[in-house]
Amino acid sequence: QKEVEQDPGPLSVPEGAIVSLNCTYSNSAFQYFMWYRQYSRKGPELLMYTYSSGNKEDGRFTAQVDKSSKYISLFIRDSQPSDSATYLCAMERDYKLSFGAGTTVTVRA
Amino acid sequence: DTGVSQNPRHKITKRGQNVTFRCDPISEHNRLYWYRQTLGQGPEFLTYFQNEAQLEKSRLLSDRFSAERPKGSFSTLEIQRTEQGDSAMYLCASSSTLGQGPGYTFGSGTRLTVV
C-alpha cells in the first residue's frame, strides 16, 4: 500500500465550477502537506502548503487538512480553463516528499 | 535568478549506454533533491544533498545510479548501463534550510527515453 493515495481521475468540469481534490495518507509522521500543479512536460509548481489541521485560503484555492482522518483536500473555486493541469498532493517527512499519483483536471470553457 | 535549471530537457539513448544529467539549483539554496517521475505517477524521491554532502539515498537508487554535488552548487545524476525501465522524467528540486516552510522549487525535468 502506498503512503499517499490520490484518485487519478480524470476530472472534467465546466468553467466556473468548484473543483474538489483529495488525498489520504497512512504515515502520521508527515509534517507538511502540500499541493502542486503540474502542466504537461513541466516540473511541479507549489500551490499551497500547510502543517496543521484546518483550512488555508489563497485566492481561489482552499486547502484542508484533517490529521485525525489522515485526509487532505484542495478546492478550486470559480475554475478557469487555465486551471487545467495535473494536481499532485505531497507530504513531507525528514526533507523527503511523498507524492500522490496526481489528478488530471480539465476545465471546459 | 531563473529558478532551477535542468539540462538536457530530453535525452534519447540506447539501452546499455551511460547518461548524465545536470541540475543548477537556485543559487541561495543549500539543499538539492533528485526525484523520478514515470507516466501517470507522482514523483518518487531518489536522493538529496545538503551542500556537497549526500545525506540520503532511496532504495530506488540502484548501483547503476550515482549523484554528485562536488562544490555544493550544481549536481549531476549519472545512470550507467541504462535499461528500458529507466525511461522517466528526472526532476531536480532545491530548497533552503533558512526560512519557514517547505520551499521546494522544482526544475522542468530531464525526460529520458531508453530505446
Let me know the largest β-sheet of chain A.
6 strands, mixed
Classify the secondary structure makeup of chain A into a structural class.
mainly beta
Q: How much is the average pLDDT of chain B?
A: 93
Mean pLDDT of chain A: 94
| Number of DSSP helical runs of chain B | 0
Secondary structural class of chain B: mainly beta
Overall geometry of chain B comes to: globular
Rg of chain A, alpha carbons: 13 Å
Distance, first to last CA of chain A: 37 Å
**Major sheet size, sense and barrel closure of chain B:** 7 strands, mixed
SSE string of chain A, helix = H, strand = E?
A: EEEEEEEEEEE
Estimate the global geometry of chain A from the Cα principal axes: globular
Distinct helical segment count of chain A: 0
**Which parts of chain A are unreliable, with pLDDT below 50 for 5 consecutive residues or more?**
none
Oligomer: heterodimer
- The proportion of strand residues of chain B reads over 45%
Order of helices and strands of chain B: EEEEEEEEEEE
Q: Biggest interface in this structure? A: A-B, 26 and 26 residues
Can you summarize this structure?
The complex is a heterodimer of chains A (109) and B (115). Chain A is mainly β. Chain A is 0% helix and 58% strand.
Describe this structure in words.
The complex is a heterodimer of chains A (109) and B (115). With 109 residues, chain A is mainly beta. Chain A has strands at residues 4-6, 11-14, 19-25, 32-38, 45-50, 54-58, 61-66, 71-76, 85-93, 96-99, 103-108. In chain A, the strands form two sheets. In chain A, strands 2, 4, 5, 9, 10 and 11 form a six-stranded mixed sheet that branches. The termini of chain A are far apart. Chain B is an all-beta fold and 115 residues long. Chain B is built from no helices and eleven strands. Chain B has strands at residues 5-7, 10-13, 19-24, 31-37, 44-50, 53-57, 65-68, 75-79, 88-95, 105-106, 110-114. In chain B, the strands form two sheets. In chain B, strands 2, 4, 5, 6, 9, 10 and 11 form a seven-stranded mixed sheet that branches. In chain B, β7 (65-68) and β8 (75-79) form a beta hairpin. The chains are: A mainly beta (109), B mainly beta (115). Chain A binds chain B through residues 4, 6, 8, 32, 34, 36, 41-46, 49, 51, 88, 90, 92, 94-102, and chain B through 4, 31, 33, 35, 40-45, 48, 55-56, 91, 93, 95, 101-109, 111.
